[in-house]
Please model this.
Amino acid sequence: MNLDFWRGKRVLVTGHTGFKGSWLCLWLHEAGAIVSGYSLPPTSAENLFELAGIGDAVDPMSADIRDLQELQPSFTGFSPI
Model:
């Protein structure tokens, strides 16, 4: 896989505080993507999002994806490509 594909791309990851979403954010960040995360806060005190410092690598947004009125401006403002 050519990781240069992701360099400079704006990627919005939903569920970024979960286990898989956290790993995806780290991987995309390391590949050079500009990453924003959108999800509810972590549900446990010990979680990968906090332990790996993913909030430092991405622009985290804390909200419920089922709330379209909250999601739409966040999506439009970040403009993932």
About this structure: Residues 8-75 form a domain with the Rossmann fold fold (CATH 3.40.50.720). Strands lie at 10-14, 34-39, 59-62.
